[in-house]
Design brief:
Elements: E1 4-9, H1 15-25, E2 33-38, H2 44-60, E3 66-69, H3 74-81, E4 86-89, H4 90-102, H5 119-134, E5 149-153, H6 159-170, E6 174-178, H7 181-186, H8 191-194, E7 200-204, H9 207-217, H10 226-243, E8 247-249, H11 255-266
Parallel strand pairs: 1-2, 1-3, 3-4, 5-6, 5-7, 7-8
Helix pairs in contact: 2-3, 5-6, 6-11, 9-10
Length: 274
C-alpha cells in the first residue's frame, strides 16, 4: 500500500510540529503516512539538508510529501519553502494575525515553547514528576495529603502513565494506588485513602481491552484470564459506587484525553500550562 511521507520540521525538539500535525492528519481516514521528524533545523545548512531529504522522498514516493513546520527563523523557513512538497507553516498561519491584534512584532526566537526560558515552570514539572514516581502504585502512602489527585483502579487500567502525564504536562501532583485482592475481600478502601476521599478518581476499562493489555505483559496465568479481569473490574466498580468515587473509562481515550477529563471533573488547577 502506498504511503505518503509526512515531515515535521522544527528548530527545537519537534514536539509542537508533531502534535499539531498529527491532530490534523487524524481527520483523514484511510490514509497511510510515513512520519519523519527533523528537529533542530536552526541554520541555513541544516535547512538545505532537510530539503534534500524531502526532495528524495518526493522522487521515491508516489505522492508529494507533506511538511509541517514550526520554524520561526526567516532564513531556514525560506529554504524549506522551496522543497518539493506541501509546505504548511503552522506558526505563520497564526503569528501574523496575532501580531496585528497585539500590535507587536513576534520575536522569531527559536525554542521558546520547549526551552528553558521559564525555569520556574520547568522546576514545577520536575517536582511533580518526582512526586508521581515516588507515589506510584501505592509504594508510599504517607504523602497523599500533598497530592492534587489520587488515581485508583485495578492493575493496568492506566494509572501510572496518566499520573506521569499530569505531572510532566501540567505540574499536577498525582499519586496512584492499585485496588487488589485485599480491597476486594474487604469491600473497603484503606483509611489513608478515605481520608483523602475528595481527591480520589477511579479508572475503569472494558474487560476485553484490559485482558488484551495484561496478555502483553503476562500472557499465561490467572492475571490475564477473562474471568479474573471481569471479577476485578466488577469488584472495583462496587467500591467506586460504595464511596461515590467519580469514574473515568479509559478504554477509548488517549492519556491526553484521560488527563483532561480528570482535570475537568475534579477542578484541579494546573500549576503550569503547556
Amino acid at each position: 500500500m502506498n504511503e505518503r511521507t509526512v515531515f515535521f520540521l522544527s528548530d527545537q525538539t519537534g514536539v509542537t510540529a508533531e502534535t499539531l500535525g498529527h491532530s490534523l492528519l487524524t481527520q483523514f481516514d484511510g490514509q497511510h503516512f510515513r512520519k519523519v521528524t527533523l528537529p533542530f533545523i536552526d541554520s541555513y545548512d541544516k535547512a538545505v539538508e532537510a530539503v534534500d531529504k524531502i526532495n528524495s522522498a518526493a522522487k521515491e514516493d508516489k505522492y508529494s510529501p507533506i511538511i509541517f513546520s514550526t520554524l520561526v527563523q526567516d532564513e531556514p523557513r525560506a529554504v524549506v519553502r522551496e522543497a518539493d512538497g506541501l509546505f504548511l507553516d503552522i506558526f505563520d498561519v497564526f503569528l501574523q494575525p496575532l501580531g496585528d491584534e497585539l500590535q507587536q512584532t513576534p520575536t522569531q526566537e527559536a525554542g521558546r515553547a520547549h526551552g528553558m526560558s521559564d525555569v520556574e515552570s520547568y522546576m514545577k514539572r520536575i517536582e511533580a514528576t518526582n512526586f508521581a514516581l515516588a507515589n506510584d502504585d501505592g509504594g508510599i502512602t504517607r504523602n497523599y495529603e500533598m497530592a492534587d489527585v489520587i488515581l485508583i483502579g485495578v492493575s493496568r487500567s492506566g494509572k501510572t502513565p496518566t499520573c506521569l502525564y499530569l505531572a510532566l504536562q501540567y505540574g499536577v501532583y498525582a499519586a496512584n494506588f492499585p485496588i487488589t485482592d485485599e480491597e476486594f475481600d474487604s469491600a473497603t478502601l484503606p483509611d489513608f485513602l478515605l481520608k483523602q476521599k475528595e481527591k480520589l478518581v477511579g479508572l475503569t476499562i472494558e474487560p476485553s481491552r484490559l485482558q488484551q493489555i495484561r496478555k502483553e505483559r503476562r500472557a499465561l496465568g490467572r492475571y490475564s484470564s477473562a474471568q479474573q479481569v471481569r471479577y476485578e473490574l466488577r469488584e472495583a466498580g462496587k467500591i467506586f459506587k460504595k464511596y461515590g468515587i467519580p469514574q473515568i473509562d479509559t478504554t477509548e481515550f488517549s492519556i491526553e484525553e484521560i488527563s483532561s477529563r480528570i482535570l475537568n471533573s475534579t477542578g484541579v488547577e494546573r500549576r503550569v500550562h503547556p
